Amino acid sequence: MRTLYLHIGHSKTGSSFLQASFANSLAAMAEHGIEYPGAPSEAATGWKISSGNGQPLLNTPPEEFEITGDKVFFSAERLFRAFAVEEGWPARLAAFCKVHDIGAVEVLMFLRDPIPHAESSYQQMVKRGGSVDTVETTFTNYTQPEMVRDALTRDYGPVKVNWHLFSYDRNKTGLLPITEAFLGLPEGTLVRGGDKAVNRSMTAGELTILRGLNAHDPAAASLLADALCNEVPEIASETVYPSTEAQQAMIDRLSGAIAEVDAMLAPSERYSVDLRPPADE
Prior knowledge:
Largest sheet: 5 strands, parallel
Number of strands: 5
Shape: globular
Strand order of the largest sheet: 2-3-1-4-5
Structural class: alpha/beta
């Protein structure tokens, strides 16, 4: 029986960087029996923003996939939402496993501490989501730990999902070695990108411009954000945190979900809830 390996993000945990490495490591992975289906995009091979090869799992009939190896690997942040909230995902996953004689499903997920993840999510919504909301609004609406909990505790029916969970914040420089170990690859197999920054965060000034443009032409704002990320990745990004009161209110609201997720993690991978200096300090 085959093994299905899934990397599902979640968001803002280095996925574009990892997917660029995967796209540039097809031959190396194949030498070790790892099949990474689909032709990589030019963006991915060029170490620019991309979305991996896992999207077809959500909308393509299982019979249309050509799987030849014993180990098949898909990567897409979009899969996180499928695991967390999409009603039809367990059945779709089970159908894929049945058609392709998959006996084990291994899922790699990097988690990010709530406060920096909420801030980074705010930036992403401004960059590519057309948002004109303030960072305070983002913190008020933030629910990621609840979604992580729901993904980890969900019933996947006949499919046994084996979770591999790591803190992005504690392992920023070790994402590739962790992924290699997950896939059973010798360390150094996956292509390193050197100091390439993929899908960097914005500066405060860039965010102000993008929010203003989102109010009039969100598509143009998204194109501008991608150009800034892809063409001038060396610009140092900035963080934009709300007041400490807003940060603490978010942590208090999510404390139950945070505790539930922490109980499923190794001590070294658990959430940190340390507050960050607000943008106006």
